[in-house]
Amino acid sequence: MLKRKVVTAICVLSAFAGSAQNNRMIYATSSKGDGLPWFDIRRIDTEKGNNADFLLNYTSAQIQTQQRVDGSLQAPVLLAAAAMDRSGKKLFFIPMHQAELRWMDPGNQNASYASLKSPVLSQLNFKEEGHQITRMVVAADGNGYALSNDGHHLIQFTTGNRPSLTDLGSINDLVSRSSISIHTKCTSWGGDLIATTDGMLILFSMNGNVFQIDPSKRTAFYIGKVEGLPENFTINGAAVDALGNVVVGCSMKNQRLYKVDLRTLRVIPEVQATDLKINASDLASMNLAVNPFGKNTTFNWTGHENQATGKASVSVYPNPSFKNQFRVNFEGLSTGVHTIQLTDLSGRILFSKKIEVIAASQTEQIEVGATYTKGMYLIQVVNQNSRSVYNGKVMLY
User: In this structure, what is the dihedral angle of CA atoms 162, 167, 172, 174, given to the nearest 10 degrees?
Assistant: First the structure.
């Protein structure tokens, strides 16, 4: 009995150690040169951070379909979309210009991968840049999601032994009056997806704009823009490290990987993900991020947000705000002093104003000034008893 318990404990500890090791691994599609072509898949240990093992390159790879193993070499293809499953044992990728879903076991020393031709992918015209698949992740529900550049094709795929693919359709901008749409080429194409523990997807576009996507509703809203990256750095890959930070990589000029705080969308000062310089056309890990933005956003098509508290309600409009000014309307609140606070996503108070509620219906004009950067802010109304009567979000443009 004692021997069985010892063996069981060893097995559990071994599984835990293996999982912890997988957590710190990030996988990159990359090139050996200064930019194109991105033919290779490499494994980066973010704890050691100074080396990247080659897992796959097209001079030695074999194709393994579900029917047969074909040892013949394939013509090299560009790789710009990859996703690791939740077990850390399957790395999925979709080659550019190829209507195939491919996957490999990153722990297998043999340079081989499985390949599945898909009619769902065949319907895309890969000669068009907008139809290219460059963003990909496995979400909290265990399914993989791949998004075309133009945002009109959200592809869901299962991650079992026989994957199946479904085109869920186009993503809809949740805030119709936003000046930044998920479909706009110059602001929102390229980049990569990460996934959060509450089932959301976060898109980091090539130009650093960040959107939250609800795959169940096919809706997206603009959150803000990453700050603090070098001037010539484009975000081509993004993945979550073991500490919950977002690691981003650039596909050109052999640049370092940087860590981004998801709460503030700022590069973490003086902290680089690794000392390694790499052309990363995509990044993938098995980790999920904690969502600081909230799953159930209350933004709607009218640009008006309302939160009822019993018979009373507080509303913020216009939302988004295009001149850094908005109104807060109080309906049926108890009279007395209330404090309106505006904070960044880390909870730091940036603006505070005390107002006296004296009427059953009252509206206050709020002007926060032109020094505020565009993006998402949190707004809270606290009554004179220090009780929060409203918590919401406001977009400043």
Answer: -20
Q: What is the mean pLDDT of the chain?
A: 77
Q: Where do the domains of the chain lie, and which CATH numbers do they carry?
A: 24-284 (2.120.10), 305-396 (2.60.40.3080)
CA atoms within 13 A on the CB side of 350: 17
Burial 294-304 (b: 16+ CB within 10 A, else e): eeebebeeebe
**Interatomic CA distance for residues 103 and 95, integer angstroms:** 11
pLDDT (tens digit per residue) in 345-393: 767 888 899 998 888 888 888 888 777 777 778 888 888 888 888 888 8
Instruction: Using alpha carbons, select from 74, 78, 114, 71 the residue that is nearest to residue 96.
Output: 78
Contact between 266 and 237 under an 8 Å Cβ cutoff? The reply is: no
Token pair 């484009």: residue: 234
Q: For residue 95, is the peptide bond before it cis, meaning its omega torsion is within 30 degrees of 0? A: no
**E strands, 96-143, where?**
100-104, 112-117, 133-138
Instruction: Please say whether the beta carbons of 218 and 172 come within 8 A.
Output: yes
Q: How does pLDDT run across 126-184, given as a tens digit for each residue?
A: 888 899 999 999 999 999 999 999 999 999 999 998 899 999 999 988 754 456 889 99
Residue (of 252, 250, 276) closest to 43 by Cα position: 276
Task: Find where tokens 């098995």 sit.
Answer: 286
- pLDDT at residue 373 in the model: 77
**What are the tokens at 377?**
């802010």
In order of 9, 10, 16, the CA distances from 2 in angstroms are 11, 12, 21
> Residue 318 and residue 326: Cα distance in Å, rounded?
6
Q: What is the CA radius of gyration of the chain?
A: 23
Q: What is the DSSP letter of 292?
A: S
Instruction: Give me the pLDDT at residue 39, please.
Output: 65
Encode pLDDT of 50-107 as tens digits: 555 655 565 444 444 443 334 333 445 677 788 999 888 898 988 887 888 988 888 7
The end-to-end CA distance of the chain, in Å, is: 67
Residues 6+ apart with CB under 8 A from 261: 245, 246, 267, 268, 346
CA angle 111, 67, 137 (to 5 degrees): 55
CB contact at 8 A, 249 and 283: yes
What distance in Å separates the CA atoms of residue 222 and residue 175, rounded to the nearest whole number?
A: 8
